[in-house]
Specification:
Keywords: Oxidoreductase. The protein is an alpha/beta fold and 252 residues long. It has seven helices and seven strands.
C-alpha cells in the first residue's frame, strides 16, 4: 500500500472531494484525520474508511480558525507521532452567476479571502510539525487556475484559485529544503460532485465535459487515486506544481 504508515489530515474531509480522497487514502494504508465543521458528515466518511479496512479519526475544526487548527494539529502529533500529509479541500464561499459590475465587494472577495486564509492557516500549522519532525511531508491543495469559461460569471472564484497557486509556489520554495512537497490537484470540474437537484445540472455537466479533449470529465474516484499518487513516494520528485486532472480541459 502506497501510504502505509502515513498520517494524513484532510481539511474538508466530510465533503464530496474530501471524502473521496479520505477513502482512497484509507485503502492505500494511511490513517486519516478528518476535519470540518459538521461531525455527522465527517463520521459518515470515517465509517466508509473503516469499512474498507482503513483507520479514521474525526474532529470538528473550523479551518478559518487558526487557534483551532493549531490545537488540532498538535493533538494529531500527540496521538499519532507525526503528520505526513496535509490536504485542504475546503469549499470556497463563492457567488456565481452575477456579472462583476453588479457584485458587492464582499461577494467578490469572499472566495479569495476564505481560500487564502484557510490554506495559509492549515499549511502553516501542519508544515511546522513536518519541519520539526525532519522527515518531510506533503501539502496538497485542490482547485483550478485555468482560463474561466467565457459564458460563465464566476465572481472571485478564479482570483482565489490564482492566489492559492502563488501560495503553493512560495510554500514549495520555502519548504523544499526541509523535504516538504507542495502540490495542487487541478480539475476542470467534477460532474459527480454536483448535487442531483442542482439547477441546470445537465447543462453544467455538458459544459464541463465539452471542454475536455477526452470527451469525459474526471470523477471523484479519479481525484482520490491521483491524490494517493501525489502524496506517495512515487511522486517524490514533484513539488511546486499542479497535477493536471482535467482530461485535457486545461493545457500546460
Amino acid at each position: 500500500m502506497l501510504l502505509a504508515g502515513r498520517n494524513a489530515i484532510i481539511y474538508g474531509g466530510g465533503g464530496s472531494v474530501g471524502g473521496a480522497i479520505a477513502r482512497a487514502f484509507g485503502r492505500a494504508g494511511a490513517r486519516v484525520f478528518l476535519t470540518g465543521r459538521t461531525l455527522a458528515t465527517l463520521d459518515a466518511v470515517a465509517a466508509d474508511v473503516r469499512a474498507s479496512g482503513g483507520a479514521a479519526d474525526t474532529a470538528a475544526v473550523d479551518a478559518l480558525d487558526e487557534h483551532a487548527v493549531d490545537a488540532h494539529a498538535a493533538a494529531v502529533v500527540a496521538a499519532a507521532g507525526r503528520i505526513d500529509i496535509s490536504v485542504n479541500v475546503i469549499a470556497d464561499a463563492d457567488v456565481q452567476g452575477t456579472p462583476m459590475i453588479d457584485m458587492t465587494v464582499e461577494d467578490y472577495l469572499a472566495p479569495v479571502v476564505q481560500s487564502v486564509r484557510s490554506k495559509f492557516i492549515t499549511s502553516r500549522a501542519t508544515a511546522r510539525h513536518m519541519v520539526r519532525d525532519g522527515r518531510g511531508g506533503v501539502l496538497l491543495f485542490f482547485g483550478g487556475a485555468g482560463d474561466p469559461p467565457r459564458d460563465f460569471h464566476l465572481g472571485g472564484l478564479q482570483a482565489g484559485f490564482q492566489a492559492v497557486e502563488h501560495m503553493r509556489r512560495q510554500l514549495a520554495t520555502e519548504l523544499g529544503p526541509h523535504g516538504v512537497r507542495v502540490l495542487t490537484l487541478r480539475t476542470g470540474g467534477l460532474p459527480d460532485s454536483i448535487p442531483a437537484d442542482a439547477p441546470a445540472l445537465e447543462a453544467i455537466e455538458k459544459s464541463i465535459t465539452g471542454q475536455t479533449l477526452l470527451g469525459r470529465a474526471a470523477t471523484l474516484a479519479d481525484v482520490g487515486d491521483v491524490a494517493v499518487f501525489a502524496a506517495s513516494d512515487l511522486a517524490r520528485t514533484m513539488t511546486g506544481t499542479a497535477v493536471n486532472v482535467t482530461c485535457g480541459a486545461m493545457l500546460d
